[in-house]
Design goal:
This protein is of the alpha/beta class and about 375 residues long. Helices cover about 40% and strands about 10% of the residues. It has two domains: about 300 residues, Rossmann fold; about 45 residues, no CATH class. About 45% of the residues are buried. It has a five-stranded parallel sheet with strand order 1-2-3-7-6, sandwiched between helices. A two-stranded antiparallel sheet has the order 4-5. The chain binds thiamine diphosphate and magnesium ion.
């Protein structure tokens, strides 16, 4: 068992050792966290209006994701669980590609082959999400081990949820990583829930950090609503991996404020009092209080930043709503050099159906709602 590590307390007062970050980077962390929140708000609104199909938000998880990912270097890799799209944006995934993926339009780099809200970005070492829980864990470990064999100086940060810590992928990935001393960091985002299963009922272990013991992997529990503690935890785990000492497990304790996804009603399985208790621990308000205390923010900073971010996001949404749908022919591309006869037949049938019923239509760019 480990004690919860903190750098700033819920009121924003310094209670631990501050990581070395200059003022610009500190304010940058606030902006990145706010961008995650604003993008989520917009996407949820679009989903409710029937413009995009599905959204899973990260409200409440902004510090865990942004703080930990900010300590990664450009050459490092980030393997996402279900909610780290905002970290990918911070690391270089263009917002336009993010939104295009939500619409699965012609600019979607996954070519409409993923469910929406499942991002990928080659340029920033961000492999495509898998909705199949825990499968990214052995994939990330394998890639980390390959990097080690090839003598590359890079770390693979593998994110997953409390629920995913019960998956086969977690156990096999942790075991291989421990034995091979793979240069990876396991980031277990304990956000309180795995859909309707409470994280307290997910395991009989006293702490998720205990799960590292069986695999010889050092683990610590960190206050995931503390962006600086999340940063510091990744920074030291990364250094350990680069020094050849092997993987670490970081447990970021936080809370998923909204439903599991846009298809979920969390009021069916959790109390308003529980949600309210976590609302009071909001990671953005807490970090804004810290910045204010240091003279890096004032009472209007969050509001001003939000206005800028919504303007940025809305411009991108306009542009992507107006983009055409993915071309039908992409259905049969990329796998075979020459499209085989059975696929050609199916494709021709699609063309016939599209001719009779019409192809998918582009949006009319009429955002905001
Ligand atoms: C192998 C597998 N089993 C079940 C599911 C259904 N499922 C989707 S999300 C989820 C819970 C995931 O919880 P957690 O790992 O805590 O991630 P969170 O959603 O909290 O970020 C489940 C069971 C799935 N997608 N894949
Ligand atoms: Mg969870």
């Amino acid at each position: 068992m480990t004690a919860l590590t903190r750098v700033i307390d819920p009121k924003g007062a310094v209670v631990g050792s501050l990581p070395q970050l200059d003022d610009e980077r500190l304010v940058g962390l606030l902006t990145h966290m706010l961008r995650v929140r604003c993008v989520d708000q917009r996407m949820l609104k679009l989903q409710r209006a029937g413009r995009v199909g599905f959204v899973g938000t990260a409200r409440g998880l902004e510090a865990a994701m942004i703080g930990s990912a900010a300590a990664l270097a450009t050459d490092d890799w980030l393997w996402s669980g279900l909610r780290e799209g905002g970290a990918a944006v911070m690391r270089g995934l263009p917002l336009a590609e993010y939104v295009a993926q939500m619409y699965c339009n012609a600019n979607d780099t996954a070519k409409g082959r993923q469910m929406c809200n499942h991002f990928q970005h080659k340029g920033s070492h961000y492999p495509s999400w898998s909705s199949v829980i825990g499968t990214q864990i052995p994939h990330g470990v394998g890639a980390a081990y390959a990097a080690k064999v090839q003598g590359k100086r890079e770390v693979h940060a593998i994110y997953f949820g409390d629920g995913a810590s019960s998956s086969n992928g977690f156990h096999s990935g942790m075991n291989f990583a421990g034995v091979w001393k793979a240069p990876c960091v396991f980031v277990l985002v304990d956000n309180g829930w795995a859909i309707s299963v409470s994280s307290r009922e997910q395991t009989a272990a006293e702490s998720y950090a205990d799960k590292g013991l069986a695999y010889g992997i050092p683990a610590r529990e960190v206050d995931g609503n503390d962006v600086l503690a999340s940063y510091a935890a990744m920074q030291s785990a990364r250094e350990r991996a680069l020094a050849g000492e092997g993987p670490s497990l970081i447990v970021l304790k936080t809370y998923r404020m909204l439903g599991h996804s846009s298809s979920d009603d969390p009021s069916k399985y959790r109390s308003e009092a529980e949600v309210a208790a976590w609302e009071a621990l909001d990671p953005i308000e807490r970090f804004a209080a810290f910045l204010t205390e240091r003279g890096l923010a004032d009472a209007g900073t969050v509001e001003r930043l939000e206005a800028q971010l919504f303007a940025e996001i809305d411009a991108v949404v306009h542009e992507q709503e107006a983009a055409p749908p993915m071309a039908l022919k992409t259905l049969v591309e990329d796998v075979y050099a020459d499209v085989p006869r059975h696929l050609r037949r199916q494709y021709n049938e699609f063309l016939r159906v599209a001719e009779v019923h019409g192809d998918a239509q582009p949006g009319d760019g009429a955002f905001p709602l």
